[in-house]
Amino acid sequence: LQVKSENRKTIWNTEEVPEGSEFDDTWDPREEPEYEILFKQCVGTEDVFFGMSGKDPSTACCEDIVIKIKLPETKYSDITLDIQDKVLDLRTPKKKLLLHLPYPVNSKEGRARFLSEEEILEVTLRVSRKFDFINFA
């Protein structure tokens, strides 16, 4: 398969570059913090006992992604967090996390809270899939 480039000086096509790669900092010496990705769904008794909505325990039926990031010896004011549709970018003076998210998210409806006693940043993001307006109506 030969793909013609619009510009002859281009060494790769835009389709070949992974989404979010513009955030990669391979030269950055800061270490990556430990993190955990959890999926969250809203269910009621009609789901649990009767199975009326058709939801199942899979990630495809989850509405939110919760990312718990361990940030020992970090103050809330030192945290810089940038959320794009498919990428979470977190920076502190000692740690850096560039996380490609498993599903696209609505970057404007997320929320984050810092649990200072546990030294954990908890980021909750709303999953944005094409047909969620049908599935979760």
UniProtKB/TrEMBL annotation:
It comes from the Eukaryota. GO terms for molecular function: dynein intermediate chain binding; protein-folding chaperone binding. Residues 32-127 form the PIH1D1/2/3 CS-like domain. One of its GO terms (cellular component) is cytoplasm. Pfam families: PIH1_CS. One of its GO terms (biological process) is axonemal dynein complex assembly. Belongs to the PIH1 family. This is PIHD3 protein. The gene is Pih1d3.
